[in-house]
Amino acid sequence: MSIKRGIKLMMLQLAFMFLQTNMQAQPMMQKQSAPESFGNTLNLGVGPGYFGYLGVPAPFFFANYEFDVLRNFTLAPFIGITSYRSDAYYYGNNDYYYHETVIPIGVKGTYYFDELLNAPSRWDFYAAASVGFAIDNVTWDNGYTGDRGVAHKADPLYLDLHIGAEYHVSHKVGLFLDLSTGVSTFGVAFHHL
Predict the structure, then answer these.
(1) CATH class of this structure's domain 3-12+36-190
(2) Domain residue ranges of the chain, discontinuous segments joined by +
(3) 10-22 burial code (b ≥16 CB/10 A, e <16)
(4) Do the Cβ atoms of 76 and 112 come closer than 8 Å?
(5) Kind and range of the H or E element at 112?
(6) Are 124 and 138 in contact (CB under 8 A)?
(7) Which is nearest to 131 in space by CA: 106, 103, 155?
(8) Rounded alpha-carbon distances, angstroms, from residue 167 to 20, 40, 80
(9) How far apart are CA 191 and CA 8, in angstroms?
(10) Residue 59 near residue 48 (C-beta atoms within 8 A)
(11) Rounded Cα–Cα distance for residues 61 and 46 (Å)
């Protein structure tokens, strides 16, 4: 299954879960009169990183911790990691590979649209932007003395735009899908830590 088809399928499943939750007569979690708090949340995710500089999708793991800053707005310091092995480069009667590891570090600003959308208490909907820097390490197989310029080097400035949704399984745990311009992830959120 292609990545695009998988993402579309996940979005359809999230939409179905949203409609199902909205139609329940007695939701398990009641809306509170006080504004919802989105901070004090640890988010752990995995998904495809399709950075333009890698040239192909690569598995990506990330973690961030959200803090409330303003009503419906959080900031979250983050760190991620992805690693990629190139296709073979034929040189001197041998095949050689390079290995690239990218570690983005920065902060993600998130605005939640729950109030605006009058979303059920089990759902969060957001748009976000991430900014930071990417540590990039490229190593070649031993013995390779050819052109090392063919390796895709990551831009040290890390920028990413996001849209996403989270479904709260309980008061403490949620499942989220975060679609973005560089790294899309599915993961688990641990609230009120």
Answers:
(1) mainly beta
(2) 3-12+36-190
(3) beeebeeebeebe
(4) no
(5) strand 98-112
(6) no
(7) 106
(8) 12, 17, 22
(9) 27
(10) yes
(11) 5
Cβ contacts of 161 within 8 Å, gap of 6 or more: 127, 128, 129, 130, 180, 181
Residue 38 is encoded by which pair of tokens?
A: 């989105």
**Per residue in 106-137, pLDDT tens?**
999 999 999 999 999 999 999 999 999 989 88
For 132-159, how does the pLDDT look when each residue is reduced to its tens digit (9 = 90+)?
Answer: 998 988 888 877 766 666 666 667 888 9
Residue whose C-alpha is closest to residue 64's, from 167, 169, 181, 160: 160
Predicted model pTM: 0.75
CA dist., res. 67 & res. 106, Å (int): 14
User: Residue 111's closest CA among 151, 68, 147?
Assistant: 68
